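Q: What does the predicted 3D structure of Integrase look like?
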Amino acid sequence: MAQGADLRFTQSLLGQESPKTTQVYTNATTKGFDQIKSPLDGLDL
Protein backbone atom coordinates (compact mmCIF):
# COMPACT_ATOMS: atom_id res chain seq x y z
CA MET A 1 0.00 0.00 0.00
CA ALA A 2 1.04 3.57 -0.51
CA GLN A 3 2.98 5.42 2.17
CA GLY A 4 3.80 2.14 3.93
CA ALA A 5 0.31 1.60 5.34
CA ASP A 6 -0.37 -2.00 6.30
CA LEU A 7 -3.16 -3.62 4.27
CA ARG A 8 -4.38 -5.76 7.18
CA PHE A 9 -4.55 -2.73 9.48
CA THR A 10 -6.51 -0.76 6.89
CA GLN A 11 -8.76 -3.77 6.32
CA SER A 12 -9.51 -3.89 10.04
CA LEU A 13 -10.23 -0.16 10.22
CA LEU A 14 -12.68 -0.43 7.33
CA GLY A 15 -14.32 -3.53 8.82
CA GLN A 16 -13.82 -5.58 5.69
CA GLU A 17 -13.41 -9.34 5.69
CA SER A 18 -11.58 -9.69 2.40
CA PRO A 19 -8.21 -8.08 1.68
CA LYS A 20 -9.23 -8.02 -1.99
CA THR A 21 -12.09 -5.66 -1.17
CA THR A 22 -9.72 -3.42 0.77
CA GLN A 23 -7.32 -3.33 -2.16
CA VAL A 24 -10.10 -2.27 -4.53
CA TYR A 25 -11.20 0.56 -2.25
CA THR A 26 -7.71 1.80 -1.44
CA ASN A 27 -6.74 1.83 -5.12
CA ALA A 28 -9.96 3.58 -6.15
CA THR A 29 -9.89 6.30 -3.51
CA THR A 30 -6.47 7.89 -3.77
CA LYS A 31 -7.66 10.95 -5.68
CA GLY A 32 -8.26 13.88 -3.37
CA PHE A 33 -6.45 12.46 -0.34
CA ASP A 34 -4.53 15.72 -0.02
CA GLN A 35 -7.84 17.49 0.69
CA ILE A 36 -9.00 15.14 3.46
CA LYS A 37 -8.73 16.70 6.89
CA SER A 38 -8.63 14.77 10.12
CA PRO A 39 -10.85 15.94 12.98
CA LEU A 40 -7.67 15.87 15.06
CA ASP A 41 -6.06 18.54 12.86
CA GLY A 42 -8.21 21.21 14.53
CA LEU A 43 -7.08 20.37 18.06
CA ASP A 44 -4.79 22.81 19.76
CA LEU A 45 -2.36 20.51 21.55
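A (community wiki): The C-alpha coordinates above were generated from the sequence. The mean pLDDT is 75. Residues 9 and 33 are 18 Å apart (CA to CA).
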